[in-house]
Write a structure and sequence with these properties.
The protein is mainly α. It is built from 14 helices and no strands. The protein has helices spanning 3-18, 20-27, 33-62, 73-98, 102-109, 112-124, 130-147, 157-183, 186-208, 213-218, 220-242, 247-254, 257-268, 275-304. α2 packs antiparallel against α11 (220-242) and α6 (112-124) packs across α8 (157-183).
Length: 305
């Protein structure tokens, strides 16, 4: 898969996630956050499991020596850690969505975009291309305009939770890119992280919430949407795409979920897309084009100069 193809895959993931904030918000009137998180990740795990098994078997067949491990113990441990981080980011965000508006949640979640290169710089001492910082500034400005959040934004309990989740989302994007590229087993990574998230959430749900058959029936379509599309497909596409592109680039592409959320609201719900929102969309698109095209143009210019 080329870098351009990988980024297109990430774009599809962003499109799915952009419409999921509303589902996450509305479903909380029916089902508890732990139960919702557990069922959606379990459903996502079932979706990707057959593909992960096939990937595992294919990798095993390519090994020259049968004694070699399909996945190194260190990488398997990292996959489990990624699952714990995914659960932490998801559940903190889910509780945050209960106590704040969808607009604020979408805006504040997008702050994980600058988190990725910052964490990469702090943890791995990896400096991103200087254009990335300009693109992040454009993306952040665009997200602000789309969300309609101004300087009067008052951060409440829910907003603080969403902000906290961005640290874990940034760490998740960073580690997914590292492990997916190193193991070349993105589907296995997806299945393991979904299973870990589902198990942890289920344990908390049993201890903290009441889940009945009636509740499951009432929340079925919300769980199905968030489980099959948002988890099973979108998170898997994220892992696959990140195996072939840089984490900072991936974060910028995934920030397009804000644009897709605004467009979906205008098309499906009849919400009016204001001029400021259109400018915001243009800024995010320009940020993505900036980080994708400018480094290539600069390299070509240096080559022929």
């Amino acid at each position: 898969m080329s870098r351009i193809q990988a980024n297109l895959v990430l774009l599809v993931a962003a499109a799915i996630w952009g419409s999921t904030f509303v589902v996450q918000h509305v479903s909380m009137d029916i089902i508890g956050p732990m139960s919702f998180t557990s069922t959606r990740f379990f459903l996502g795990f079932l979706v990707v499991l057959p593909l992960a098994i096939r990937e595992w078997q294919k990798k095993k067949m390519t090994l020259k020596e049968k004694t070699h491990e399909v996945i190194a113990k260190k990488d398997l441990g990292l996959m489990i850690v990624i699952g714990v981080i995914l659960f932490t980011a998801t559940i903190i965000q889910q509780y945050g969505i209960i106590h704040t508006s969808v607009t604020n949640a979408g805006f504040l979640t997008a702050l994980y975009v600058p988190m990725v290169p910052l964490l990469g710089l702090i943890i791995f001492r990896k400096k991103p291309h200087w254009i990335t910082w300009i693109a992040i500034a454009c993306s952040f400005s665009g997200t602000t305009l789309i969300s309609g959040v101004d300087s009067s934004l008052q951060l409440g309990y829910g907003d603080a939770l969403i902000l906290t989740s961005t640290i874990f989302w940034g760490l998740h994007v960073l580690l997914v890119g590292l492990v997916a590229a190193r193991t070349s087993m993105p589907l296995t990574l997806a299945a393991i992280q979904f299973a870990i998230s589902a198990i942890i959430a289920a344990a908390f749900a049993v201890a903290m919430e009441t889940l009945t058959l009636e509740i499951l029936k009432a929340a079925f379509w919300f769980i199905a949407y968030a489980g099959v599309l948002s988890v099973g497909i979108a998170f898997t596409l994220q892992v696959v795409g990140q195996a072939h592109t840089q984490p900072a680039d991936a974060a910028l592409i995934l920030s397009m979920e804000t644009v897709f959320a605004a467009v979906a609201g205008a098309v499906i719900l009849g919400e009016r897309l204001e001029m400021t929102s259109m400018i915001g969309c243009a800024l995010i698109l320009s940020a993505i084009l900036m980080v994708e095209v400018l480094p290539i143009l600069i390299r070509k210019r240096r080559r022929f100069s």
